[in-house]
């Protein structure tokens, strides 16, 4: 069974960079697309972006200038960096695996989510 | 960006009753629509993809229908574990794939 686990600071200061890592177990990041989704009371569920093992990335245009997703196959992890954080970035952040096969590109596996608050 | 609109915002249903949830897209997404269930304190769970195909392990009481701009999720006989928030998501156009704002199914 594939499991995803987010890790990173729960509190980020305004203007700093929000950094999260997702560790994958029960499967390899060398297959499928891997992504980040966030959820806030104000904006609901929002795709941030996703990455494939070859390094190809796709980002939400609303965040594209500030976001970077990378992948480390040696650690079976992928990561999110969101620069110049503001209070509007306060949300629960989920890492996710996009379906392969027939259910592509629905999200088949989700991490448990991690609350990130942007505040001084 | 495609806007997904769900109705109603809250649906009050008794156990054993049928629940019908609606999702509308601001432009056609063909059949590229998924439904997710989110229980309190948990991540969303994939229920339906391609508008009408149940994901692995999803009970038969969940069914999806529709295409283009109008979609429906039906829960034929509500069980206690079905009281949750349900989201639709279009995955026809990136960027970005977009979610509806959710329908909360609560106990009547």
Question: Could you please describe the fold and organization of this structure?
Answer:
The complex is a heterodimer of chains A (120) and B (108). By secondary structure, chain A is mainly beta. Chain A is globular, with a radius of gyration of 14 Å. Chain A is built from no helices and 11 strands. Chain B is mainly β and 108 residues long. Chain B is globular and about 35 Å long. Chain B starts with a strand and ends with a strand. At the A-B interface, strand 5 and strand 10 of A face strand 5 and strand 10 of B.
Number of strands of chain A: 11
Our measurement of the CA-to-CA distance between the termini of chain A, rounded to an integer number of angstroms, reads 39 Å
Number of strands of chain B: 11
Identify the overall geometry of chain A: globular
- Percent helix of chain B, as a range, is under 10%
How large is the radius of gyration of chain B?
Answer: 13 Å
What is the mean pLDDT of chain A? 96
Question: How much of the residues of chain B is beta strand, in percent?
Answer: over 45%
Q: Tell me the major beta sheet of chain A.
A: 7 strands, mixed
Structure summary:
The complex is a heterodimer of chains A (120) and B (108). By secondary structure, chain A is mainly beta.
Question: What secondary-structure arrangement, pairings included, does this model have?
Answer:
The complex is a heterodimer of chains A (120) and B (108).
Chain A lengths: L2 E5 L3 E2 L5 E8 L8 E7 L3 E8 L5 E3 L7 E6 L4 E6 L8 E8 L8 E4 L3 E5 L2
Parallel strand pairs in A: 2-11
Antiparallel strand pairs in A: 1-3, 3-8, 4-5, 4-9, 5-6, 7-8, 9-10, 9-11
Chain B lengths: L3 E4 L2 E4 L5 E7 L7 E6 L6 E5 L3 E2 L7 E6 L2 E6 L9 E6 L7 E2 L3 E5 L1
Parallel strand pairs in B: 2-11
Antiparallel strand pairs in B: 1-3, 3-8, 4-5, 4-9, 5-6, 7-8, 9-10, 9-11
């Amino acid at each position: 069974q594939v499991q995803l686990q987010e890790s990173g600071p729960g509190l980020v200061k305004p203007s700093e960079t929000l950094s999260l890592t997702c560790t994958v177990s029960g499967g390899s990041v060398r297959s499928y697309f891997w992504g980040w989704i966030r959820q806030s009371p104000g904006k609901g569920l929002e795709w941030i972006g996703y990455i494939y093992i070859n390094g190809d990335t796709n980002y939400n245009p609303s965040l594209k200038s500030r976001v970077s997703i990378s992948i480390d196959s040696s650690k079976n992890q992928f990561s999110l960096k969101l620069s110049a954080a503001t209070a509007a970035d306060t949300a629960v952040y989920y890492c996710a695996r996009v379906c392969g096969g027939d259910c592509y590109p629905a999200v088949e596996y989700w991490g448990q989510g991690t609350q990130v608050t942007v505040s001084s | 960006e495609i806007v997904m609109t769900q109705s109603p915002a809250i649906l009050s249903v008794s156990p054993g009753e049928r629940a019908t949830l609606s999702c509308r897209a601001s432009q056609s997404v063909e059949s590229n629509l998924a439904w997710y269930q989110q229980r309190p304190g948990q991540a969303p769970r994939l229920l339906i993809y391609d508008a009408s195909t149940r994901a692995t392990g999803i009970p038969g009481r969940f069914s999806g229908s529709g295409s283009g701009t109008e979609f429906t999720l039906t829960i034929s006989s509500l069980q206690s574990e079905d009281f949750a928030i349900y989201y639709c998501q279009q995955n026809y156009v990136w960027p970005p794939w977009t979610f509806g704002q959710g329908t909360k199914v609560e106990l009547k």
